[in-house]
Structure formats: structure tokens, C-alpha cells
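Researcher: Please predict.
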Amino acid sequence: MRTDSGPGGEPGIEVHGLRKRFGTTTALDNVDLVVETGQVLALLGPNGAGKTTLVRILATLLSADAGTARVAGFDVVGQAGRVRAAIGLTGQFAAIDDLLSGRENLEMVGELSHLPHREALRRARELLEQFELVDAGDRQTRTYSGGMRRRLDLAACLIARPPVVVLDEPTTGLDPASRFGLWQVIDNLAGAGTTVLLTTQYLEEADRLARRIAVIDRGRIVAEGSPDELKRQLGGEVVELAADDDRTLDAAATALEPLSAGQLHVDRQSRRATIPAPDGPSTLMAALCRLDAAGVRVDDIGLRRPSLDDVFLHLTRRDSALAEPAGGTR
């Protein structure tokens, strides 16, 4: 059964006024964040937005310049040892010993976590089974595939049954089958009452796993809510069009820019553009008229409900080769 707060009535993770600078760069700017016990919160943001800096502070690997952070009810500065005992962490790269077998890696982490020897052996067996690594358990991990290494890394962070787990982009580089397997594990963790903070750049992953989502950009939390709440911020629907080349895409974006109120987004990889359509069919009809008047012929155009991708682009509004303002590069 899930509870709404951690030991002593506190959330699993609680951050207030957190600030961190590296020289002239502000990595975190007055960040407030709460993750209730048993909840999965996904932290989304572009590269360099501050996600990993926050993770490192929560894991006591980095000190903040100002503000407070508590994990499982313990202060990350004054009670750092208690925090480290209460948290499981996986970084963006698997932290395993290539010269040891998968079983030996898990047993070593168990003993480093001060589990009794027999308990470390038992937990290693359990986790090899849970993560479908039994057949490879006695092989050196240098022979493991990328997906197997990530599964073993996550298993290692769970060996001491931490009440709080922080996963920093845990499925980066995994094939779809391996990613789905990790999703199942994360679902099971939350179902058992574990607090999970997940940073990811896979918006489908956040939509699938998280009860709540926080979007961070340039060191600030710019939005927070459930996936449905964030999607509703864009209104009921969006107009999406597809073009067969970049020139047509740019011409379509220029024609539709007056309809977008600065919220038109271009994805050059898929050659698609989207704009919010608060009036639904009326916005679509206006878009068709503008494209016709400009002599632009697109491959496809229609209405659809907003996705988390639309929300992310709307909130962060980063100019890049994959997500650009109306009209493309200028």
C-alpha cells in the first residue's frame, strides 16, 4: 500500500530554493520540487537544463550554493550518510566492474551496502532472476550487451531495497524491448511504495511511467503537473502538417506563423510542424486557406490531441536543428 509521505511524515524527496552556479553559468536557479512517497516523478528538460546537477546534489555528490534538499526525510548536507544509505542511484552510464561477473557485481554492492553476507548472496540471486540475467550471471560483465549492463546497473542500485531511487536517463541507448523491460521494473518499484525520480529525454517514457512531471529549463522549474494537466495547457488540439522537403516545410511555417501566436514548432528530422488549435476545425480551415493562398502543397495536414512532445517544445522553446521557431533558421 502506498503512503503520501516518508518516515516522519515527510515526502520521499523535498527541495526548496536550490541554487547552483558553475562560474558564470547558473545550473539551478531557485528550484522547488517535491516527490511524494511511492510516486514516480519525471524530470524533463533539454541538455544543460540542470537535471544531472539536481541529481548529483540529491545523491550528495555535489553541494548546492543555497537552498535545502531532503531525501527520505534526511538533509543532504547535515545527514549525508543517512541519505546515501536511503538512496539508490543509476547514472547515465552503467557503473559496473567489467572484470567481475554479474553475480559478483551484485554481491559486492550488497556487502558495500552493509548487508550480511548471506543476505547479499540471496539478494543477488533474486535480482538476477528479476532482471532476467540468470543465464549470464556467472559471465564477466565485459561480455554483456548494453541492455544487459543497464539492467545489472539498476539491479545493483536496488540490492539494499532503498526507499528512494533516482534514475538519471536510465534507458538511454537501449533497444525498445530492453526499455520496456525497465519500464516494468519501475512500475513495480512504485507499486511497492518506492519513491522514484526519473530524468529522461524520452517523452513517451515520462508519459507512460510518471504520475507527475516537472519540466526544467535553464535551471528553473517552468511547469509541473500530471501528464494530462500539462497537455491541457495547450488547449484541446493541435494542427500538424507534414512536408516532403525542407523548402516546403519552411514555406508552410511562414504561411502559418500568423496563426501560431509564436507557438509554431518545426521538427526538421520528421519534417513536421505543429501549432495549437484552440478552435479545432476553425484553426485547421484557416491553416488550409493560408497554405492555399501561398501556393504551398504539403503531404498531410490534420488535427490531433496534444502530446507531451508538444508540451515540452512549448515550454522550453529551444532553437535547434530539430525544434525551431516559425520560418526555420534565420
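Model: The chain has two domains: 7-225, 232-316.
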